[in-house]
Amino acid sequence: MKRTIVPTPGAAVVHTHAEADVTNLTADLALKAPLASPAFTGTPTGITKAHVGLGNVDNTSDVNKPISTATQTALDAKLAKPSNPAATSAVTVAANGTVGTSSLSEILASSAPTISPGVVNTTTETAIASLTVTAGQVVAGDMVVLDVTWDVRNNSAGSVNYTYRFKVGAVTIATAGAVALGANANRASAKGRFYVLLPTLSTPRVWGGYEASAQVGSGFGGITTAHSGVLAPATPSVDFASDVTIQLTCQMGTADAAADFRPAGAVITRIRA
What we know:
Layout: H1 25-30, H2 69-76, E1 88-93, E2 99-111, E3 126-133, E4 143-154, E5 160-168, E6 171-181, E7 186-197, E8 205-214, E9 229-234, E10 244-252, E11 259-272
Antiparallel strand pairs: 1-2, 2-11, 3-10, 4-7, 4-11, 5-6, 5-10, 7-8, 8-9
């Protein structure tokens, strides 16, 4: 007996389904990112900076980012700023228009004015200024300058003598003895400047001087011309590789209650060529 089998019609090769007819299709599609402006969730892996054209990028924080080579080169050409905010530099202009710095000055030490109290009336040698240049503050070629101010007064009936001594380290460089201030309401404001040049730290060359002028005001007369002095150049055996104290001292000839001297302040400045 012959049988004929009629096949059940199937789906066409190309056909469509409703989205709801495919199991989990909607949920699976929700996990995919669109090609246009994809938004990723989680931590993507396998992507390198070269893949996205950022081969020179790293994850360095702003505070840790190095400066460019060009910036560093420009900074290296600048003059180093001194540690002391009072430092100044002397600017020179060459004939060709080049601007440069010829020297740098910096305050190394200072003493505040001591107008009152600060009256000294004694035959004991007493420092008008005593400041220390500490080891490492100066190098060969530097110059150290001591500027000091003080007052002297004589209200007695006779002349009063003052002896000044300038000292570098333990060495007394010079003594100005019996500097007189005349009698009867004499008063003077004095100032001194002393230089220490350092060709090497162990071969200082010292010179300087001081002067005074009568204070303007009723009842004050002039002072003797001897109340000034010039310090001849000297080469003391002092080594500035260690701490060195620079002093100007005064000693009265008599402890007259009507005469005195008053330290008013001092400063040591380093000048670097």
